[in-house]
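User: I'll paste a sequence; please echo it back and then give the predicted structure.

Assistant: Echoing your sequence first, then the prediction.
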Amino acid sequence: MTESSTFQLSRIYASGWGAGRQHGNLDPDDMEAVAERLNPYCLSVERERWTQGFKDSISRVRATPARTRDRIMRTGE
């Protein structure tokens, strides 16, 4: 396989971020196992980038106030 470009890696990170948004209420102890199970990539650099996006998204959702989080989930903003 060829090496992933910076742009491709940014899209992979975004894909992980999107998956993480759907799992914002995930128990932190389960985060690694769920990320491993959901990660669709084979190359280690791609898997790492997707997992980072997934974890960053969950951390962001947890840091967002509940009212704002509810609005985002309702409207997709």
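Residues 6-75 form one domain. The chain has one domain: 6-75.
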